[in-house]
Amino acid sequence: MSNPNLFSKQYLLTAGPTPLPPRVLSIASEPILYHRAPAFVDIYERVLANLPRVFQTSNQVLVFGSSGSGGMESAAANLIVPGDNVIVASCGKFGQRWAQLAEAFGANLHHLEFEWGTPVDPAAIGNKLDEIDGPVKAVFTTFSETSTGVLNDVKAINEIVTAAGSILVVDAVSGLGAANLPQDEWGIDVVVAGSQKALMCPPGLGFASVSPKALEIAAQNPGRRFYFDWEKTAKGQAKGNSPFTPAVSLFMALDVALNMILEEEGLENVFARHAVLAKAARAGIKAIGLERFGPDNPDANVVTAAWLPEEIEGAKVPGRMRDVYGVTIAGGQDHLKGKIARIAHCGYFGGFDIITALTALEMALRDLGFDVTPGSGAGAAEQVFAEHGSVPQPA
Ligand SMILES: *Cc1c(COP(=O)(O)O)cnc(C)c1O
Fold first, then answer.
1. What is the CATH number of domain 31-263?
2. Which end of the chain is more exposed for a tag (fewer CB within 10 A), N or C?
3. Distance 390 CA to ligand 1 centre (A)
4. How much is the pLDDT for 8?
5. CATH class, 11-18+266-388 region
6. Overall pTM > 0.90
7. pLDDT given at position 3
8. Beta-bridge partner residues of 328
């Protein structure tokens, strides 16, 4: 394997970490601010005021120095008392993480597993809620299942869960800021996310948008957590006073990224851009002669997955794209390793990123012996952009 120089031209086109706007990158190299000094407190308060706009909520969004999984762990730590009934509805790698967390926190776990590549069936959650004796503390599921590209109907899931008197916790680590998730309008109690996907920041911040009801449930169940305690963080944030040292540089980066999303491009336009990019990725995959993995869902705008041809060594495709062509995309995880390729459109992605990913995919497939017409995928994407009237670009 070649080992390209760290500074050689590379195209990072994965669903996380995602490519970053130069402005976001450069602000993170400014001097470190003292977190109690006004210069930082201004930034801190602005970020905390803007974050709920991305979650489309009036909740306080709690911020932790962690990867996205830290936001998830905060939900498990604050909601689950050992022995509680909880339901996890999963359809991929990240949904399984909820099950692992629920077990780590001692829940009486009821795990509804759906086949990877299919969405969670809301009705099955309803049946499970009926079937379980006694209260179900919470239901955990995934919005955009990044391991497969599937987008779950969390609106329908939430209606069933709240009607049964439980609360829903949604992992939107990759979906938030890429696909529409109006938390308050849909009435979802907890949404967690991370900084390094559609929010166009480096990895290192985990978020939990927690409703007053969920905060109350947590407050009634103290213990088994310290750093991730929701109440402690909520109280500190409300006073502009983080209970622990915040990730100063990441807050500065997020400040710039949120301004780009909310003011320069606008959330609606951000969603619309992701939709066109996803459409182009789907068209490109089809034109290359690959079969799409997962259901046809025009709202699944975060990641597009394709089956790799059986007659070639599929596991070599992403490595070849990266090491020979400098284009990094993700392959499949676990039992899908070597079986699928995932084209991301999540965050700071424009039309030419999709064309680049499709072109490198065509080249790697040809190298490995699959018959592809050069430019077929890229041409189909170009056609989608022509019909759209422009090549979508982020702000
Ligand atoms: C990336 C991702 C996570 C976990 O993120 P980490 O930041 O790696 O902890 C969780 N859920 C989904 C859906 C993701 O895409």
1. 3.40.640.10
2. N
3. 31
4. 82
5. alpha beta
6. yes
7. 57
8. 12
